[in-house]
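Example (one chain per record):
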Amino acid sequence: MPINKLTELLDSQNIKYTIITHSVAYTAQGIAALTHIPGQELAKTVIVNMDDALAMAVLPASCQVDLAALRAATGAKSVTLAREADFMHRFPGCETGAMPPFGNLYGVQVFVEESLTKDKEIAFNAGSHRELMRLAYEDFARVVKPKLLQFALPRTRAA
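Predicted structure:
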């Protein structure tokens, strides 16, 4: 169970966190509405293929990944959205689309949109479509050591 793996890691580092259980929801915006967390404070994890390696792009739920900006910021030759078939087995125990942004637990590099650092706390899927975890951004960054970049665009209605 991914939440157990997360709680063990955070407990071993003496990091305080909250687990929020909610009705099943599959979109970041839907989760934000159910849990009354503003979309800019809920972090979503988008899996990308970057030069044929998987990576996590972590950004506010109210935004979408600007693949060109991510490619330019990382110096990668190619960045595309990963297909579920490319990564579903890489995150054992996680429901597809609910991976927590802890790439260090899965051997995957993590890129965080700089705007997420403006919030004292972040909330994110904890491996299922029914649980969120909330903790201080500072603690998240200390454990995950993500690379901070600017790669988010506001969501459009068509997105």
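Caption: Residues 64 and 158 are 11 Å apart (CA to CA).
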